[in-house]
What does this fold into?
Amino acid sequence: MAEMLESVIRMKIKMIEYEENYLNDVRDLLTELEEYIVSIDQDKLDRIHPEYHEKMALLDLKKVKENHGKCYLAIRDNDKVLGLIMGIIPEYEESDYLDYKCPKRGIITELVITEKARSIGIGHMLMEKMDSYFKENECEYVLVDVFAYNEKAIKFYGKNGFHSRMYIEIKKL
It folds into this structure.
């Protein structure tokens, strides 16, 4: 039954590369994600700056452009954006080579599905699209930072073949 549902969804949703006429949809999705992150932040360090909605999408899209990246959108028949993924292929810095093999890697910088469209396979579809882009560009690995309190995202990435390699610990003074 789940496979049938995902197959129906795939027929009604198309994956496109970002186009400027979808900027407000991207802004809305990134704001929705940040609102969720703020709501689960047990440290109460995240916030939504008054200029977040206006500026964050532009900053993210600039980073994509400057780092050989892509932004893909999942769009329903009615032109409604349901989700997005952004990924980059950054260059290593000279100091990286001193203690690391430096395989070519892609980095997922954003992945968000609007709340109404979660858990129906859209995130997986976007991941497949970005994985294809990274493979076409000869990346050997894909990295993603996941907020430690975002248990849903950690579970999602685990189902998609990711595992933890490093941890960042925090302590309040």
